[in-house]
Every structure is written in structure tokens, then in C-alpha cells.
Design a protein that fits this description.
This is Periplasmic copper-binding protein NosD beta helix domain-containing protein. Keywords: Repeat, Signal. The protein is mostly beta strands. It has a single domain (about 25-440), classed as Pectate Lyase C-like. Helix content is about 10%, strand content about 30%. The chain is built from four helices and 31 strands. The protein has a 20-stranded parallel beta sheet that branches. It has an eleven-stranded parallel beta sheet with strand order 4-7-9-11-14-17-20-23-26-29-31. The longest helix is centred in the N-terminal third of the chain and has 19 residues, at about 1-20. It starts with a helix and ends in a 79-residue tail after the last helix. Residues about 1-35 have low confidence and may be disordered.
Length: about 450
């Protein structure tokens, strides 16, 4: 046993000495030889470092940490700017928290890319990207979010999460909190006890959430106090308890929520029972606007949600103001659109235009809430019999995902250059999605 410990220590010291001396990639692409000034290297796990955390600690800005297939029992902290953390195989590189750690990956530096791997079984988050020291330390609020008290708002600026599978995590699958200028794309989330994808406390956000699947979560996508240039585009939010919410919450800073664009998403069949039960009991709803304002909902397909397709309500003392619901297709919902204000706080200026509607509560919303001209869509009165939410299951028991698409050329492409500000979608180019959007990658179907 003493000899084994000595050999392990010698190997680690050898790796550290090489990096401190300025080692770079040799002819075989591994981390051997001297690093030329300004050069970027690939650090391979486990060939060059025994763990992902060890490899990340050795990385310089611009380096690629490339992880071989295997199961890794660690919480990875990325605090060096412009590092790319990438798995060689999305389904076979697994960071498994074993319910013994809060987060799988925590990113606290700008320009970091997390790509092509799986994170699961963490008590809080699969991937957390944040400029908040309290959030990075894993201090959750009382109802799932992060109440950072008197901590000043500090943004992490620029990030990328791409081709990541996040499943069976206790709060959020992919969580961007107090972060700006980022992209979450081509990822899959399931089994989150709160939200599969969450964007919170940013203003202006300059964040794009596109081409993802969120299913079998309490909520598919949630944007809380997330305002200004935030685009949720082309996602499949099917088979959760609630498909999507955009809301204001006093627990986080930068209230109220304003100015998101939700376009070209499939939001359907969000009444799955084999899902984690959320504290507020939401179930059977496609879209919830809870105290959010000045948001645009364009060309979404909102179908087969047993309670309601889209609901607008107030958050305590925060009214929903000026939301525009335009050119969406509603089919098979309990009711298509409902305005509900159980407290004295009332919404105003919310409007409907050119939607395919069947029923609304109250009746005639399409004409009384038009933007700005009278709408030609019919909107007869519906009967809103809100179904009782059934009990859920532990997040650890949610069905495992199937194989997901790989990051292109994961083992041969160099580090990813994350832009300082992402290119934002042109909403006029975003089409109404088909009912089969991204179905080949999903477990839950719409019918």
C-alpha cells in the first residue's frame, strides 16, 4: 500500500511539474512537451489527469479538457475563463453525483463551454452557470431558487452549454443564474424537481435557449426575473407537469420579469404523472405567465395540455403587463387561454392577435384584449375545471433518457470560442413547429 501511494503521488507531481513548466501537446496531441507562448493545449482525462477536476485545475484560458468515456464521481468547478469542457461521448461520459453533492458542474468564469456529456443524480443542479458566489456555494432558497440576501448582483458574462444531458437532479437540470450573454442549446433535461432549464436574475440577459428537449420535469423551462433579449426558440417542452413559465419572484433580485421572446416551441401534453411533484402543485398547463410583462409569444404550437394552453396571472403585488400572444396555434387544451387574477392585483394591456383559438376564459378575449386592432379569431367561453394534480414520484425514479445526438467531431475539434455576446435569433424567421418537433430524441410523445 505505501508503494502504491508513492506511485500515485509521483504521477500527480509529474503532471503538475509538466504544466508549471509550460508543457504543450506533443505529436500525439496529448499534454506532453513544452507549451509555446500563447499556445492552447488539450488535456485528456484520464490520460493527462486522473479526474476532470484535476484536468480543469491545470487548464489555461483557451484550453480543451477532453474527457474519455467513464463514470466520474465528482463535482467539477470551472473557474478559469475560456476553458472548454467536453466529453468524447455524450452518453458515456457521465458525471454522477450519487446524491452526495449539490452540483455536477459549476461554472463561475466567463467564456466557458460545457459540451457533450451527461450529468445526473445531484441534489441541486446538473450544470450551474453563475456570477453569484452564494449560488456557487450551493445555498438554495426556501422554495428551490437562490435567495442571495444582500449579495450584490454580479453577472457571469458569456457561456455555452451544448449537447448536454441533465437528468435526475434535485432542483434544475441546466441553470443559468445571475449570468448574461450565453447559449443553452441542443441539450436534454429530465427528472428535475423544479425546472429542466432555468434562467434567473439577469437584466439584460442576452441569452438564447434553443433546440432543447425538456420532458418529465416539474417544469420544462422557467425564466424568473429574466429580462431583456432572452429568446426561447425551437424547443420541445412536452410531457412535464408544466411546459413553460415566465415569472416575477421576490425571492430573486431584478424584479419584475420583462421582455422575453418565446417563439416556435412545441409545448404539449404537460400533465405527466411519472414526474417530480412541484411545491406549488402546478399541473396540466402549457404556458404560465405569472407577473411577467412585455413578453412576446409568437408561433408556438400549444397542444393537449389538460388544464390550459396559456394562463396569465399576477404574482402577489406584481401585475402582468403588455404581454403579446400572436399567431400561435392552440389545439386540444382544457381551455386555450385564461386570464386569472385571484388577488387585487390585475393585469393590463395583455393582448391576443391572429391565434388559432377554441376557448378562452373569460369569453371574447380575442376581441376585448386585441393588439391593437380587433382580432378575427373566435374565442367562445370555455369551462375551466382545473384538474387536481396527482402525486408525483421522486426525481431519482424518473425514466432514464435514451441516446442523444453527439457534439459534432467531439474528439477532433479544438476548444470552442464562446462569443462575448451571442447572435440573437431573428424572430421573423422562426416558423410554427410541427407536432413532431425533435420527437426522435424524446421519450414522451404528444399523442
Amino acid at each position: 500500500m505505501p508503494r502504491l501511494r508513492l506511485r500515485v503521488m509521483a504521477a500527480l507531481l509529474s503532471t503538475l511539474t509538466c504544466v508549471l513548466a509550460g508543457c504543450g501537446p506533443g505529436d500525439d496531441g496529448s499534454n506532453h512537451g513544452r507549451r509555446p507562448p500563447g499556445a492552447h493545449v488539450t488535456i485528456r482525462v484520464p490520460a493527462d489527469a486522473p479526474t476532470i477536476s484535476a484536468a480543469v485545475s491545470l487548464a489555461h484560458a483557451g484550453d480543451l479538457v477532453l474527457v474519455a468515456s467513464g463514470e466520474y464521481h465528482e463535482s467539477v468547478q470551472v473557474s478559469t475563463p475560456r476553458v472548454t469542457l467536453r466529453g468524447e461521448s455524450r452518453d458515456k461520459v457521465v458525471i454522477d453525483g450519487r446524491l452526495q453533492q449539490p452540483n455536477g458542474i459549476v461554472v463561475t468564469a466567463p467564456g466557458v463551454a460545457v459540451e457533450n456529456l451527461t450529468v445526473k443524480n445531484n441534489t441541486q443542479n446538473g450544470v450551474l452557470v453563475t456570477g453569484s458566489a452564494k449560488a456557487a456555494a450551493g445555498l438554495p432558497g426556501q422554495s428551490g431558487g437562490y435567495d442571495t440576501g444582500d449579495e450584490p448582483v454580479t453577472f457571469l458574462k458569456s457561456f455555452l452549454v451544448s449537447h448536454v444531458t441533465a437528468t435526475r437532479n434535485g432542483l434544475y437540470g441546466i441553470y443559468a443564474f445571475s449570468a448574461q450573454n450565453g447559449v443553452i442549446e441542443d441539450s436534454y433535461t429530465s427528472g428535475a424537481s423544479d425546472s429542466g432549464i432555468y434562467v434567473g436574475q439577469c437584466k439584460p440577459c442576452h441569452i438564447v435557449v434553443r433546440d432543447n428537449i425538456a420532458e418529465l420535469n416539474a417544469i420544462g423551462y422557467e425564466g424568473t426575473n429574466a429580462s431583456g433579449a432572452i429568446y426561447v426558440v425551437g424547443n420541445r417542452l412536452v410531457g412535464n407537469r408544466v411546459g413553460l413559465t415566465t415569472n416575477s419572484d421576490h425571492q430573486e433580485k431584478l424584479l419584475p420579469q420583462q421582455g422575453a421572446t418565446i417563439a416556435g416551441n412545441l409545448i404539449a401534453a404537460n400533465q405527466q404523472t411519472a414526474t417530480p411533484e412541484q411545491a406549488d402543485g402546478g399541473w396540466g398547463t402549457g404556458i404560465g405567465i405569472d407577473g411577467g410583462s412585455d413578453n412576446q409569444f409568437l408561433r408556438n404550437r400549444i397542444a393537449d395540455n389538460r388544464n390550459a394552453g396559456l394562463v396569465i396571472s399576477a404574482t402577489a403585488d406584481v401585475p402582468p403587463v403588455g404581454n403579446r400572444i400572436v399567431d400561435n396555434t392552440f389545439t386540444g387544451n382544457g381551455i386555450d387561454v385564461g386570464w386569472t387574477f385571484p388577488t387585487a392585483t390585475r393585469g393590463r394591456g395583455n393582448c391576443l392577435r391572429d391565434n388559432e383559438l377554441r376557448t378562452t376564459v373569460p369569453a371574447r378575449l380575442a376581441t376585448t384584449a386585441s393588439c391593437p386592432l380587433p382580432d378575427r379569431s373566435p374565442s367562445p367561453a370555455g369551462r375551466w375545471a382545473t384538474p387536481k394534480a396527482p402525486g408525483g414520484i421522486p426525481f431519482t425514479e424518473v425514466a432514464a433518457p435514451g441516446p442523444q445526438p453527439q457534439f459534432p467531431h467531439a474528439t477532433t475539434t479544438g476548444a470552442t470560442a464562446v462569443p462575448a455576446v451571442p447572435a440573437l435569433p431573428k424572430t421573423a424567421d422562426v416558423p410554427l413547429p410541427s407536432a413532431s418537433l425533435l420527437a426522435a430524441r424524446a421519450r414522451v410523445q404528444t399523442s
